[in-house]
Design a protein that fits this description.
Blueprint: H1 26-30, E1 51-65, E2 68-84, H2 87-92, E3 95-99, E4 105-114, H3 129-135, E5 138-147, E6 157-159, E7 179-181, E8 202-214, E9 220-228, E10 262-270
Antiparallel strand pairs: 1-2, 2-3, 2-4, 4-5, 5-8, 6-7, 8-9, 9-10
């Protein structure tokens, strides 16, 4: 069709080049502000999207003495985010304060212990060099991480009852029989989260066993073994949340940032 911007705008006011085209497609003119080239990002300036965070944080520290140190930290938190409940609320710009779904409880511990045996330590400080090389200079270090499960986010579904299970687990974290697929063009009415339905907890321990021994005053060796997921604990991922899947409600894979036990050996020379 005829271009209504033809020779009515200057290049600096019409960077798309429409000022010099006698005809143009209808689709081009249907876009917002067609005199500008490319897609535009529209910022509507509607208030909302706030986040509110409250937490209780406790930390205990045992400074290094008697060959060991210890740190324990605990966090309990509540976080809500303003979000759109569904596409209709998105269109109407109606915000709802929803739980963030993150873990309520987090516990972290770490420590080191210089075993009190060998040269310069409490037991057998004058052990012969060969014996000290075998039993002296050993150190232990480790970290522990635990957090409670996250709230499970449910999509739009038809719900006919309470989905809570008395003993949830990897084979089923909630009662899947009360959920059905939401028909097309039907607005959801079920909540995003159920307060008593959470995914699997997480627990992991990493540790290091090392030994320091001297060859001369200036030359020292350190032999160490690192163990990641030392207890070979199985940490499950959150369950499948697709109501049309045969694995709906089940955890079928390992936590995304986890793996089975791994051992690493190393030797360090300092001179």
């Amino acid at each position: 069709m005829a271009n209504p911007f033809y020779h009515l705008a200057t290049p600096n006011l019409s960077p798309s080049g429409l000022y010099n085209q006698s005809t143009v497609s209808i689709l081009t003119l249907a876009r917002p502000y067609p005199q500008y080239s490319g897609a535009l990002t529209v910022i509507d300036g509607v208030n909302g999207g706030d986040m509110i965070y409250h937490s209780l944080q406790i930390k205990g520290v045992k400074s290094l003495s008697s060959g060991y140190t210890l740190l324990i930290a605990y966090n309990y938190h509540l976080q809500t985010n303003q979000q759109f409940y569904d596409n209709v609320d998105n269109y109407l710009k109606q915000w709802t304060s929803e739980d963030s779904g993150t873990s309520r409880h987090r516990l972290i511990g770490s420590g080191t212990w210089a075993l009190p045996v060998g040269k310069g330590r409490h037991f057998m400080p004058n052990a012969p060099r060969l014996l000290d090389a075998l039993i002296g200079g050993w150190n232990l270090a480790g970290t522990m991480t635990w957090h409670s499960g996250t709230l499970l986010n449910f999509g739009g579904m038809l719900v006919s009852g309470d989905p809570t299970l008395a003993n949830p687990g990897p084979g089923g974290w909630f009662n899947t029989s009360v959920f059905k697929q939401l028909p097309a063009y039907t607005r959801r009415t079920n909540p995003w989260y159920y307060p008593n339905i959470r995914g699997p907890k997480y627990f992991n321990i990493d540790g290091t066993l090392s030994e320091d021994f001297s060859v001369t005053e200036r030359i020292r060796f350190q032999l160490h073994m690192d163990a990641f997921n030392a207890l070979n604990n199985m940490n499950y991922n959150n369950p499948n949340m697709s109501v049309t899947s045969s694995q709906f409600g089940r955890s079928t894979d390992i936590y995304s940032q986890d793996y089975g036990r791994r051992l690493q050996l190393g030797l360090r020379l300092t001179f």
